[in-house]
Model the fold of this input.
Amino acid sequence: MSRSRLEKLRQKLAEKEIDAILISQPENRHYLSGFTGSAGYLLISPQKAVLATDFRYVEQAAVQAPDFEIARINSYTADWISGLIAGLNLKKLGFEAESVTFAFYRWLSDNLKQSQLKLVPVESLVESLRAVKEPAELDLITKAVGITDRALEHIEGVMRPGMTEIEAAWEIEKFMREQGSQTLPFEIIVAAGPNGALPHHQPSARVINSGEPVVVDIGAKCGGYCSDMTRTFCPGAQDDKFRKVYDTVLGAQLAALSIIKEGMTGEQADSLARTVIEEAGYGQNFGHGLGHGVGLAVHELPRLGAKSTDVLSAGMVFTVEPGIYLTGWGGVRIEDVAAIENGKARVISKAKKT
Ligand code: ZN
Ligand code: ZN
Done:
């Protein structure tokens, strides 16, 4: 598994004329090595693949990352990096510009000053590999999606007017953990009534009232892989406004899901849903992108949004989540997970939407 990923990365390094790369981003470290510990660095050159970690993880690293040479580092001594690169004869060392802190960069350049090595910032290198899923990755995402499908069905059955957002969120969390979610990749969103106008509202003690929209956005995690789904419920009687907003969002989502195809950019995909929402007069109320890749991280490549040049290709897995948010009233968002297969989008999630 990790060997073919390493080969793909090395190919990219060669294209960029970089001699080696230091990987510090946690999901990238996991993806390339198989190591799931919370601390460590990978140093990857054409000949070498080293996983440097501290005492707590040395044993685990040897088991999880058989393709890597394990180097034990002492996080309190600052010079392990120069020891690691000594003898590799590197001229250009890449580092992950999007995740390296300024303090780490300063530490790195201080420690490598003697070596005449040039530090080269790289962006989205491993992330672009991660965007295309292998079958085993798709299986884990599908498993996580299955848990969120069942959790949404469960909460729809037990949600009653009078319940608070926090009570509903706990009910969902308990259910997902019992169903095998190893952890929650993000805090559950239950947003009732006007709170639903805030796309990332945190559950509060607010009581859910009859006839108001309730946005429920949840994710599960299996084998490190995430799911991310949203349904909007309306306990009690639905009024005309709810129906109009809901049908617009659903229509936008179904349009996008049926037309999205391989080779489209993220911007083109976004516009499929955006046009439907604009035509219904709610263009100003859909303030976020259509979706995002899901995998080891809950938000990853590709981006489906108004300015995204990311090209959708076979094996990519992403969300499609249009929404309409009306201040003082609430919101409606419907989010599914889809994969590009046989040239078009196959929807993985199954929780009902009508
Ligand atoms: Zn979501
Ligand atoms: Zn999402």
Residues 164 and 182 are 25 Å apart (CA to CA). The pocket of zinc ion (ligand 2) is lined by residues 228, 292, 319, 321, 335 (CB under 6 Å). Residues 135-347 form a domain with the Creatine Amidinohydrolase fold (CATH 3.90.230.10). The chain has two domains: 2-130, 135-347.
